[in-house]
Amino acid sequence: MLMINTLAGLLILTSLAVIAAKTAKKSSALYAVQSLVLVALFVFLAQELNAHELYMWSVSAFVTKVLLVPAILIFAVRKLDESTVPASMNAAWLIPIATAIVVVCYMATNAVQLPLAEHLKPALSVSLSHFLLGLTCIVTQRNMMKQVFGYCLMENGSHLTLALLANKAPELVEIGIATDAIFAVMIMAVLVNKIYRTLHTLDAKQLTELRG
After folding, report:
1. Where this protein primarily resides, as one coarse class (predicted)?
2. Nearest 5 degrees, angle CA 65-CA 67-CA 70?
3. Ramachandran class of 112: left when φ > 0, alpha when ψ lies in -120 to 50, beta otherwise
4. 143: which strand partners?
């Protein structure tokens, strides 16, 4: 129980590291670390909730989130020059923003009666926080490749929410979610590469015109 909430807190810290990293390559490695924490969470939740389906979820998440998605993103940025993209929001602002997000999400989950043990509500608030942290990443980052990680953070949050509230769902549901995430990341990576080859920049603020 303590381990579950500790790992959930570690998810927040790794999310901040993913957002604050200076390059997409570093963010990819940090995202792999976060996904490994998520895998560990699935294992402990399987024990706590007596949900053996979560063991299969952890295996699937390890293959897709720890191995495949970071590999796809690292491969996608290998020929992209990120040094020309100006710095985004000051990393010092991430801590108060994340704190406010977690507090609001905790108050929201604490005020609602859910079919979930009270001691797991902090983990649920963390899972909901990832939606807003992912949105924060998308809004604050000028590096288009870094914006992709906003989606990845939101997807990890939805994955944890599902594990907490629908842990008896068949493994096929989890595999479907993970597969969707892989294809979504691949499509976004291809689009970013296409934009870079056309405009020779990863700066989202340079996308001021739409041309046919």
Report:
1. membrane
2. 75
3. beta
4. 203
80-118 core/surface letters (b: 16 or more CB in 10 A; e: else):
bebeebeebbeeeebeebbeebbeebbeebeeeeeebee
d(CA 176, CA 44): 22
210 touches 195 (CB < 8 A): no
CA diameter of the chain: 55
pTM, two decimal places = 0.88
**pLDDT, tens only, 126-159:** 888 988 999 988 888 888 899 999 999 998 888 8
Tokens of 81: 């020059």
